[in-house]
Amino acid sequence: MSERATSTGKAGMNLTLKIWRQNGSSDRGRMVTYEVKDVSPDMSFLEMLDVLNERLTLEGDDPVAFDHDCREGICGMCGMVINGVAHGEQRATTTCQLHMRHFEDGATVTIEPWRAAPFPVVKDLVVDRSAFDRIIQAGGFISVPAGSAPDAHAVPVPKDDADAAFDAATCIGCGACVAACPNGSASLFTAAKITHLGLLPQGQPERASRAKAMVEQMDAEGFGGCTNTGECTAVCPKGIPLDAIARMNADYLKTASK
Amino acid sequence: MAVTGAVLVLFLVGHMLGNLKAFLGADSFNHYAEWLRTVGSPALPNRTLLTIAEIGLVVAVVLHMWSAVSLARRAAKARPVKYAARVKPQAGGYATRTMRYGGVIILLFVIWHLLDLTFGVVNPKGGQATPYDRLVAGFAPDRWWVTVFYLVAMAMIGLHLRHGLWSALQTLGLAGRYKALKAGSTAVSAVLVVGFIAIPLAVMIGVVK
Question: Are residues A99 and A143 in the same domain?
């Protein structure tokens, strides 16, 4: 990591990008090298790719496909493995919030999609994360019609539970946990959803069946098993803690023992 | 993984405490070895409880390895295309990354260990000598390489337990005091390793002879 440089005084950076190009799911795919010149240190990583794509379009080449939406770190769309780290080495940061000032001038940057069998590559850096949707559909909801928003103090929630539930609820479902896990496990994602609902009063009636259904769906999707390496929480842009996985296991074991 | 690991950890605790009898002299150590064979008699035939424990341990080891292999195979299936860039671990868990190959080293060690001190096949004194004599002969200064192998294996066991203990608690759903559980796992691993390496070192430097 270089010293933080500002746009003033630091000229544009030149980078060598090695990007995974794959033209559809049936293509085998390959790494392709591109040179980008005069990159501003104030650009976000995605803006840097935008600059590359503008050039590729003008040259008549196919622009690099990548997912993105809000570009302010809250939607969960963006995500790529940058130099072997999901969302890059900057902690608690989505790819869109990663800035080029964290890279050295002249550096080579490797950019790959999330790698997991349940996340097939759609094109280039875009992967299909519908597996996450199906895990949510299996039980990541509350069936009781809740009506309009109740008064905030109508159902008391202990402060610690409210905080832990909120921390878990910050999960944006980007999939970095799966990408970083040496086992390709989706445990942190699933556990975040189970924790978020399981700690609140509204989530209690379905707590046991939810854990069972979501864990079984997660396994059915072909994600690997959790060995508690902690890689997921280290790359999580929202810093979802590993405790969530223990809570998921506790809920799951309770149903399994019944 | 967690349940079989817990069985093996309980065994290690008992094994380590039993080993420390070596510091009380040959009679105490040999008597302890004899007691393991005769505990429960005359109500039970000799070796009844010992054989039950041995079968339990073999089953635990086999199931532990089976869990490890199936987890590794699931992991390989879940990521058929590897990353081109060298993946940089972000969690800093060195012990975590030794689990799979460390487990193999520990298995090889256990095989040697049984041949050496249980069956006496590779022990200078052979299988007929008293356990204490086999111990002292096995770690004699001129067999320093055996002692070095033991130390390396104990370091692997320490790393294995450092991650394994905490990981087992996590798998069994004991969340909450994350830091305390991790620190506790490290402390238990360290105590076990120190207890185990004390004896070969004591024999090598002549404190136990």
Answer: no
Interface confidence, given as ipTM, is 0.91
Angle, vertex CA B31, rays to CA B27 and CA B33, nearest 5: 125
- Asked if A84's CB is within 8 angstroms of B78's CB, the reply is no
Kindly report, residue by residue over B93-129, the tens digit of the pLDDT: 889 999 999 999 999 999 999 999 999 989 999 888 9
Residues 136-165 of B with CB under 8 A from A: 163
Q: What is the tens place of the pLDDT at every residue in A241-254?
A: 999 999 999 999 99
The residue range of the domain holding A103 is: 13-121
Instruction: Give the separation between CA B166 and CA B179, rounded to whole angstroms.
Output: 10
Chain B residues near residue A127 by CB distance under 8 angstroms = none
Assess whether A137 and A116 both reside in one domain: no
Do the chains contact at B83 and A249, CB–CB below 8 Å? no
Confirm whether A28 is domain-assigned. yes
How far, in Å, are B25, B150, B154, B158 from residue B191 at the CA level?
22, 16, 11, 9
Q: How many CB pairs under 8 A join A and B?
A: 115
Torsion sign across C-alpha atoms B14, B19, B25, B26: positive
Tokens of B110: 């256990």
- Domain with residue A168: its CATH number is 1.10.1060.10
Q: Are residues A244 and A168 in the same domain?
A: yes
Interface touch A231/B89, C-beta < 8 Å: yes
Q: Is A256 on the interface with B (CB under 8 A)?
A: no
